[in-house]
Design a protein that fits this description.
The complex is a heterodimer. By secondary structure, chain A is an alpha/beta fold. Helices cover 50% and strands 13% of the residues of chain A. Classes of the chains: A alpha/beta, B alpha/beta.
């Protein structure tokens, strides 16, 4: 399956922030709106997989990951669509991928 | 002459009164003389300075000046300072006799004395520890400087802000990793913990006022033990007094009988979130910080907030007699923790 690649360190920032812009720079909501959601829509339209490379940044706050990837699941109101069409790479932090998948799965549980 | 002045009763009283007045006059004169003697040889400006110095109340810090190790005594000291600030009494923070010092106490004192609402406009001055090593740490912290001590130092780095600043976190981690691993690297787990702490301050430290509370972060390299300690602090309302937490606590009490803040903290860090309460509490910050310990991102994690002190590495939760209004987080990075180049 062909891939559309996002490398956060190159395409967005090396120092990701937290959830909202009011809390600081490079928030997860902005990343979702400007990069993740458009690329995910493109991937679905072109029947490709979205591949997110998480390496080479300083790290990620939970609120950044939750608002970006959980936010993506909330956009589609179904976490399965997201999980089936997205893949990750994280060699810097081996726990990160499982965390993100958990945020995606929990996103619509209120 | 009136008969009264010649009476025995009057003479007795008058002699007694004269005697006591003379005694008082002589004592006062002696006091003035002693005061003048002390100022002999001093210039006019020095005399003025000395007079000003005499208005300061000398507050001796606890000899073990470590917030993580001697929490109650340090909190008690700060309470006493607060009372003096409220009375608008100038304060001299006397650190001369301290024998032990950790960076967490420095950042606590910094956040305290640089907070205009606490200090209430009174003048503060301080001296440095007589111990040469502790003295150096204190001087480099910039605690008694008029500026904010933001310049880079080798020993101790202090930063403050109101927002979550990834640049600051990344910079401090780079320096810390150089000290511990011999080269500049990244510690994604520490970055995560710091950003989460900053975000918590931004959102929860002052209810209904996002981004109003200042956080303080100090990073210190202990060369003897070869670890870098991170001490993060905000003087907001604390974990257990945020408005969100009040709802959470009420439900926790009614459903599970949890009323002690130690139990509440255990519940929060476990990440169970009391889902059956149907409370929209989705805070992942503290569970994430706790997970960092399990994942070996860092060691020796401690949390102090309101009436709870938790040593999460040892699973110890203690009730504090003196309450701490704010949130304090502490952890250490050593050469066994995770990092990446």
């Amino acid at each position: 399956m062909d891939k559309i690649i996002i490398k956060i360190a190159d395409d967005y920032t090396k120092i990701p922030g937290v959830r909202e812009e009011i809390e600081g720079d490079f928030p997860g909501e902005e990343f979702l709106e400007k990069i993740l959601l458009p690329k995910f829509k493109q991937a679905l339209a072109e029947k490709k997989q979205l591949f997110v490379d998480l390496d080479d940044t300083a790290g990620y706050a939970t609120s950044f990951l939750e608002s970006a990837f959980g936010g993506l699941a909330r956009e589609y109101k179904d976490h399965k669509i997201v999980l089936n069409n997205i893949d990750f790479k994280s060699e810097d932090d081996p726990f990160l991928i499982d965390d993100i998948k958990e945020y995606i799965t929990d996103a619509n549980n209120k | 002459m009136k008969k009264y002045f010649t009476s025995w009763e009057y003479k007795r009283r008058n002699t007694k009164r004269a005697k006591s007045r003379l005694k008082r006059r002589l004592a006062s004169k002696e006091k003035q003389k002693a005061k003048r003697r002390k100022n002999i040889g001093l210039k006019k400006e020095d005399k003025k300075k000395k007079r000003a110095a005499d208005t300061f109340v000398n507050k001796k810090a606890p000899p073990n000046f470590s917030f993580v190790e001697n929490t109650e005594a340090v909190l008690q000291y700060l309470e006493e300072l607060k009372i003096l600030f409220k009375r608008r009494q100038n304060v001299m923070i006397n650190l001369r006799d301290i024998t032990h010092l950790t960076n967490d106490a420095i950042v606590l004192l910094l956040s305290f004395v640089k907070n205009p609402k606490i200090v209430n406009g009174v003048a503060i001055k301080g001296n440095y520890p007589s111990d040469e090593r502790l003295r150096k740490i204190f001087i480099e912290s910039g605690i008694f400087n008029k500026n904010d001590g933001n310049e880079a130092k080798n020993y101790i780095l202090t930063r403050q802000n109101k927002k979550a600043e990834g640049g600051i976190a990344a910079e401090l981690i780079k320096r810390a990793s150089k000290e511990i691993f011999g080269e500049e690297g990244r510690c994604p787990g520490i970055y995560r913990g710091l950003m989460e702490s900053m975000a918590n301050t931004c959102y929860h430290a002052k209810p209904q006022q996002i981004g109003h509370e200042t956080w303080w972060l100090t990073v210190y390299h202990d060369r003897e033990d070869n670890h870098v300690s991170f001490a993060f602090i905000d003087l907001g309302v604390g974990i257990f007094k945020s408005s969100k937490m009040n709802d959470f606590k009420a439900k926790a009490a009614s459903l599970f009988g949890l009323s002690d803040n130690r139990d509440i903290l255990k519940e929060i860090i476990s990440g169970r979130k009391l889902s059956s309460t149907k409370i929209p509490y989705r805070g992942k910050g503290l569970p994430t910080i706790f997970k960092g310990l399990e994942r070996n991102y860092y060691s020796n994690l401690k949390i102090i907030s309101n009436d709870v002190k938790a040593d999460l590495s040892k699973n110890e939760f203690v009730n504090l007699k003196t309450e701490f209004n704010g949130t304090f987080l502490y952890w250490e990075l050593n050469n066994t923790n995770r990092w990446t180049k």
